[in-house]
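Our consortium's second objective concerns turning raw sequence data into structural hypotheses that experimental partners can test. To show how far this objective has progressed, the report includes one record in full. It was chosen at random from the queue rather than selected for favorable results. The single chain below, 385 residues long, was entered without modification.
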Amino acid sequence: MKRRTFLVATTATIGTAWLAKYAGAADTIKIGSIYSLTGSYATIEDPALKGAKLAIKQVNDGGGVKGQKLELIQYDGKSTLADIANAAQRLVHEDKVIAIVGVCDSGFYLASAPIAQDAGIPYLDTGGTVPNLPEQIGEFAHMMPFGDDYQAFVAAEFAKKDLGAKTAFLLRDGDTDYTRAIAQFFGERFQRDGGKIIEESSYHTGDTDYSSHITKIRGTNPAPDVIYAAMNPGDDATFVRQAREAGVKIPIIGGDAFDNPDLVKNAGANNTVDVYFTTHMAMSTDNPLVAKFIDAYKAEYGVPPENAFAGLGYDSVNLMVDAMNKSSDLSSKAINDAIFTITSFAGVTGNADFSNKSRAPDKEVTIISVKDGKFVPIGNRKPAA
């Protein structure tokens, strides 16, 4: 089926708004979204937007919510804090949305969520994983993914139990909340379980030369059993390629930012041998819900979902729709209250329970191995107590 969409021009430089085009658009339910389609996070957030748009289409094809169609108003965050904050201002004050979904980085969420919080509008974080994000913002802030503590703990336990690692080298981007958090949590769990962090090194976002860090890795004697690389999209591929080309064959483990198409494209399939990462779902047809999502995504866009963030974008809209269907009315306050009544949301990225008001769902973490340039799931796990 041909997608019926149109673009609305804006006078600001922040981007364009995407809306689902249906008759009676004046009576639609406006949901805002902020995803970066340009800049460093485009490889993660473009699939997230596609997942969100697919969910909007399916809900509208099924009759909408309480007899009304959904309208998704999207702005390009351009991977910058200023543009993302401006997008939130526009959604709240100009577009008058009643709910927002979006962003896949904790810093992006912290730049935009206070604006929604002040206006009393529920804002579901699609992919930012700092575990206490909602507590930093307020009662209208919620998370779709697991927290960084979960994924880093699982990564540390995988390194110890599956790879047999006793020592680790910790490389982190020192500039972002996300990378500092997963590095900290990995180190805590790895050492709690008897491992040793034998060396650490920090770099700056966007660095293109990792030779000093690689020299430090190669100079460590004895060599570490694993490298935990707490890195952002783009930086990960550059480091992996340079490390492998310098002769570093040690297993490399990353976080969910590794789950992007450019990892293999820019690092090279031969250089991603013995590379692993944690993420939010496995693109496996063994799960009927996931298989249905993959088929629908392919039918809509001509390609399978590029990464797990497509699933998170899809789930974010569907969870907000679930809250709307459960709410007493379609006010932002009623929708927000309804989120806290959700006890068993079944999404493609896992089940979510918000009834304990933690606002960060208790989910399994997927471990991926890169083999022959493909992302191959190893399994889903939760961290040990």
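The partners drew two points from this record. The chain has two domains: 5-146+285-354, 149-279+366-381. The mean pLDDT is 92. Both points have been shared with the crystallography group to help prioritize constructs.
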